[in-house]
């Protein structure tokens, strides 16, 4: 009479308690078995099947708790069980043993197969995750720092267009075409890799961001990722450019040690102003870049500079200080309607990039 209550009780527990329903089953079923006063062998058969099912569903870690609940439930049921005399029957004992074997054997096999399936799935997910991590790390080396931060999970949205005050610099290798004619491709690649690596390290050291490579040159921005303020960013940029000569000398010494017949020389242009920074493009093709008069002006000044020179625009010169620059007069540059005042950096390495902006 009490056995039909088990499915109703378990259905109610499953709906109300969720994963805790298994604990209710492990306690309720032995209680009913105890109330029925069944002999030991049928009782062991039912409890063994119950605990085997629990292990198959929840794993071996739940076995001690489930066994404790089953024992407590059976003891509680036995305390209130009426006196019922069951005649000993080998047929009943045999049926109980057969039931236990027929129930537990396929259930154990099913539990083992499910466990192995989950293990294989975890291994595939781990391999896939490691591969994604390697691909992300490789991809981060090809993009600008803000894009790398998004790939690293710091933000998962597209970069909206932002208007920021930046100091940008174009650094370029002079007479690069002549180098390509004199050097073997392997030596030229080695020289370019060393130049870009040195330039990237210098930008990081002074708080800038190597925004992108442009053939034999690079665009470096200050104030794009972390800003020290207008004056601080301009001072940091000029301080970095002031070290270009020292860096180029070190690169040439290294090339000479490797018997590469080339002498590098660089030039640079720097300007400050408002730029629009963010993702440009549509659909499946986007590019993170910056546009603005400061970017265009820095590029034009770099093109006008001679080998070894660093030209700056008026805004950058005013932010850093007039005593570090020589006036070059005004120039008509493409894309700018009015003549542009240009200044050449005179004193290198003397800018305190750690000053706080005003």
How is this structure best summarized?
The chain contains 12 helices and 8 strands.
Write structural notes for this entry.
This protein has 358 residues and is α+β, with helices and mostly antiparallel strands. It has two domains: 5-122, no CATH class; 151-345, Nucleotide cyclase, GGDEF domain (Alpha-Beta Plaits), CATH 3.30.70.1230. The chain is 55% helix and 18% strand. Strands 1, 2, 3, 4, 5, 6, 7 and 8 form an eight-stranded mixed β-sheet that branches. The longest helix is centred in the N-terminal third of the chain and has 51 residues, at 90-140. The radius of gyration is 38 Å and the shape is rod-shaped. The termini are far apart. 29% of the residues are buried.
């Amino acid at each position: 009479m009490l056995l039909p209550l088990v499915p109703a009780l378990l259905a109610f527990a499953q709906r109300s308690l969720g994963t805790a329903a298994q604990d209710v089953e492990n306690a309720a079923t032995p209680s009913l078995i105890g109330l029925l006063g069944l002999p030991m062998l049928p009782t062991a058969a039912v409890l063994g099947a119950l605990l085997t099912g629990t292990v198959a569903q929840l794993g071996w870690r739940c076995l001690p708790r489930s066994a404790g609940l089953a024992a407590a439930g059976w003891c509680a049921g036995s305390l209130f069980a009426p006196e019922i005399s069951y005649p000993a029957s080998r047929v009943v004992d045999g049926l109980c043993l057969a039931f236990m074997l027929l129930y537990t054997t396929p259930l154990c096999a099913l539990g083992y197969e499910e466990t192995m399936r989950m293990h294989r799935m975890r291994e595939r997910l781990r391999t896939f995750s490691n591969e994604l991590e390697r691909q992300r790390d490789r991809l981060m080396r090809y993009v600008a720092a803000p894009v790398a931060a998004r790939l690293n999970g710091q933000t998962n949205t597209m970069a909206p267009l932002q208007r920021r005050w930046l100091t940008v610099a174009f650094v370029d290798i002079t007479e690069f075409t002549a180098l390509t004619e004199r050097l073997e491709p392997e030596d030229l690649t080695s020289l370019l890799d060393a130049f870009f690596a040195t330039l990237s390290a210098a930008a990081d050291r002074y708080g800038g961001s190597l925004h992108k490579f442009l053939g034999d040159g690079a665009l470096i921005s200050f104030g794009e990722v972390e800003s020290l303020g207008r004056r601080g960013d301009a001072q940091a940029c000029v301080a970095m450019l002031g070290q270009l000569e020292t860096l180029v000398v070190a690169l040439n010494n290294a090339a000479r040690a490797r018997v590469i017949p080339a002498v590098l020389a660089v030039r640079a242009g720097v300007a400050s102003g408002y730029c629009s920074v963010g993702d440009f493009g549509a659909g499946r093709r986007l590019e993170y870049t910056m546009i603005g008069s400061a970017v265009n002006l820095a590029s034009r000044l770099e093109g006008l500079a001679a080998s070894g020179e660093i030209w700056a625009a008026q805004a950058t010169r005013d932010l850093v200080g007039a005593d570090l620059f020589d006036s070059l007069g005004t120039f008509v540059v493409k894309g700018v309607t009015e003549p542009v005042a240009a200044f050449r950096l005179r004193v290198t390495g003397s800018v305190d990039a750690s000053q706080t902006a005003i």
